Amino acid sequence: MATARPIRDPRSRIEPWQDPEAAPFVRIQGVTKTFGDLYAVDNVSLDIFKGEFFALLGPSGCGKSTLLRMLAGFEKPTAGRILIDGVDMTDFPPWRRPVNMMFQSYALFPHLTVRRNIAFGLEQERLPRAEIAERVAEVVRLVRLEGLEDRKPEQLSGGQKQRVALARALVKRPKVLLLDEPLGALDKKLRDQTQLELVNIQDRLGLTFVIVTHDQEEAMTVGSRMAIMREGQIAQIGTPSEIYEYPASRFVAEFVGEVNLIEARLLRVEGTFMHLRAPALGCAIVTDRPVPALPGEPLWVAVRPEKMTIAKAPPRETGHNCVEGEVFDIEYLGDVSVYHVRLESGAMLRATEANRLRLIERPITWEDRVWLSWGPDASVVLKS
Amino acid sequence: MRRGPGPFDLAALTLGFAFLYLPIVILVVFSFNASKLVTVWGGFSLRWYEAVLSNQQLLDSAWVSVRIAFVTATTALVLGTMAGLVLVRIQRFPGKALFTGMVFAPLVMPEVVTGLSLLLLFVSLDVPRGFWTVAIAHTTFATCYVAVVVQARLLTFDRSLEEAAMDLGAPPVRTFFLVTLPLIAPSLAGGWLLAFALSLDDLVIASFTTGPGATTLPMRIYSQARLGVTPEINAVCTILVALVTIVVLVISIVQKRRLVRERARPAR
C-alpha cells in the first residue's frame, strides 16, 4: 500500500514509548463509558506521550469518538480515570481542561468573523487586548489565513474553514489538541496536503495531538503511533509500520490495508521457522515468525498482496509458499494493479504489482496460468 | 406542458381572494365615507379619522392594549424560551410527557375555557381585576406560542457550536449568552412579535379577566359595534390594518435586504 509518510528530521524523531523512563503525558486508565446497556468504551487503558501525534482508528461505532469526547470533557467516564500532565481531569468540565478540540463540522461561530472566532478562547481567559491581537495574528500567519480575518465563516471555502478551526484551537496553546475527523469534508488532494501541513505544525510547535479517524491512510500518514479500536476496546497499539507489518489479529490485518488470510494448521516448528499446512492452498507455508500453538489449533496466515510475487513461470523452489492458479480479475489502479488469482481449490488470493511497464505491454493478463510465491518473512501467523 | 392559467383558474383565484379580503376592502372604503350611514356612500371624507383622534376613550383603550401586549410579549418570551430550552435540551426527566402536554395545551384550549377558568381563579384568590390580570392571562397562552417557535429553532441548532464555546473556556451560562442567544435571536424576535400580536388581538380572554379602567381596544370596538356600527369603528380598524401591514412589510424588507447582502458577498 502506498502511504506517504512525511519526512521528519531524524534528530527530532522521538520514540518515548520505547523509553521505560519516560512519563506518559496523557493517561487513560481503565476508562469505561456506557450508554444504557451499550458499552461505547469498554475498559480502555492507554498512555500517550508528550509530542506524539496519536491516532485513534476504527470503524464507525467503535468508540473512538466517545473516547475523544471524554478527553475533551463532553462525556464523563462511567468508570476509570483520565490524567493529563499528571493532573486527574476526570471530573473537570470542558471549560477548565487544558485541551482544545477541532470539530468534525468545524463548529465555527457563524455570527463572528474569522478574527473573533480565533480570539474567542483567549477572550474567555480575559487576556489583555494587545496580547490577544498579537497571538491571533501569530496563529493566522501559522495557518496562512492572512487577509481573511474580517470574513464570516459562510464566506470561506471548506479548506479555509478547516484552517480557522485549527487556528482557533491552537491559539489557546493547549496541552493536548484533539482532532475529530478533521479532514473528512475535504477532497482527496486537499486532504493529503493538509495532513502533511498538520504534521508540520505539530512538529514545529511540539504539541501533543490526538486524532480520531476512520481513514487508515490518514492515521498512518499523520500518526506517530495509533490505536486500532473495535467494539469499545483497543485491538492493537503500535507505530503504523508495526501495525501494518505485524497485525495482532485478523480484524487488525483486514482493517489496516489489504491482506490475504489463509486458514492453516500447525505442522511443526524448526528452530525459528514454523511450518503450516493450508488445505485451501494445497501447499505448505513456512514463516519466520512462530507463535506458540498446539497441533490442530486453527490458525490464520496473513500475507499482504504486495509481498506476493506473481509470475508466469514456476519459481525455483516449489515445495512451500508457492501456489499455482489462474488470473480471475485484474484491478488496474494506475500505479499498481491488483491480480485476483483463483486456485484449484476455488480460494482467491490477491497479489499487487507495480505497473513499471505500460499497460499495453502487460505481461500477465486474464486467464493466464500464474504462480504466486512469497518469502518466509512475508507472512504473519494469527491466532484470533 | 405548461400553459397560462385558464379561465377556471382565474375565477377560482378571484373568488378565493374576494372571500378573504372583500370584507376588509369594504371596511377600508367605508372608513372614508362622508355619510353617517354605514351602507350608503356619501362622498370622500376624513371626518371619522378626526373623530377617532378626538375619541379619548378609544385612544385610552388602544394605549391599554399596547401596554398589555408589551408586558405579555416580554414575559412570554422569557418563559417560552425557558420552556423551549427544557423541551429540547433535557433528554429525559420524570414527567416530561406531562410537561410537554401542559406547555402546548393552551394552543388547542378553547379561549372561553381559558378565560373562564382564569376569572374563577382571580375571583377565588380575591385579586382585583384590571391591567395586570389581563396581562397574566395573555401571558399564559402566549407563552406556549413562543415555546413552539423557540423549540423549532433549537431542534435545528448545531450543538457542537456550544461544545466548541465550552471547549474554548466559556462556562455554560456565558456560552448561552455569547453563542446560543445571538444565533437564536431572530426566532426570539419572531416569537415576541407573535405574542404581541396575539395579545393585541384577543377579545375573549380579556373580556373575562379585565376590570374597571382596563378596557382593551378589541373590547372597546366590540362594545361600540353592538350599539351600532359607526364609520368611526371602520376608521379604527383601517388604522389597525395599516399598522399591521407596515410592520409586516418592514420585517420582510429587512430580511430580504439581509439575504441580498449575504448573497452579494462573494464566498470563495
Kindly list the characteristics that best describe this protein:
heterodimer, A: 384 residues, alpha+beta, six-stranded mixed β-sheet, five-stranded antiparallel β-sheet, 33% strand, disordered N terminus, B: 268 residues, mainly alpha, 11 helices
Describe it for me?
- The complex is a heterodimer of chains A (384) and B (268).
- Chain A has 384 residues and is α+β, with helices and mostly antiparallel strands.
- Chain A is built from 8 helices and 20 strands.
- The longest helix of chain A has 18 residues, at 188-205.
- In chain A, the strands form 4 sheets. A 6-stranded mixed sheet of chain A has the order 6-7-8-3-9-10, sandwiched between helices. Chain A has a 5-stranded antiparallel sheet with strand order 13-12-11-14-20. A 5-stranded antiparallel sheet of chain A has the order 15-19-16-17-18, with no helix packed on it.
- Chain B is an all-alpha fold and 268 residues long.
- In chain B, 77% of the residues lie in helices and 0% in strands.
- Chain B has 11 helices and no strands.
- Classes of the chains: A alpha+beta (384), B mainly alpha (268).
- Chain A binds chain B through residues 72-74, 93-95, 99-101, 103-105, 107-111, 120-121, 124-125, 152, 154-157, 160, 168-169, 172, and chain B through 158, 160-161, 163-171, 174, 178-179, 182-183, 262, 265-268.
